[in-house]
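input
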Amino acid sequence: MTAERGTPSLAEHRALAAFRYEIRRFLAWSEQTARAAGLEPQQHQLLLAVKGLPEGREPTIGAVAERLCVEHHTAVALVDKLEARDYLKRERSSDDRRKVLLTLRPAGAKKLAELSRKHKAHLTTTGEPLLAALKAILGDLTGEPVRARPSRKRRAPVNDAG
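output
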């Protein structure tokens, strides 16, 4: 992007707009899919955060709050709801009894696996425009710009969560 050298070009604005659009399309689909599976979107995100933390990160409420970009008390409320549904449990760390760790219970792991399969399948079939939009912004990361393909007309996202 040429922002350092002045005003971004029309092509750069279009690339950013296309990327944001593709992200929103995916997120809207993901939220619909979570609701169809009986979870609020943030509950799904919390289960995914617990399971998918980077190596070396412990699944504490603080860690998942950071990953969800929410306040600690919001993460606590989400954990409370998931714990009440037997999807998640809290347990004291054996190393540091002050630390509370989150783990998925079998029902939570099953629900997350189901949603993760659907998300991967969805991205496998619809992820190309998202990738093309990102490449239009970043190039191929070797310094060579990549031109985005002209966008195709698409119908409104359909909830194929069923």
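quick obs: Strands lie at 88-92, 100-104.
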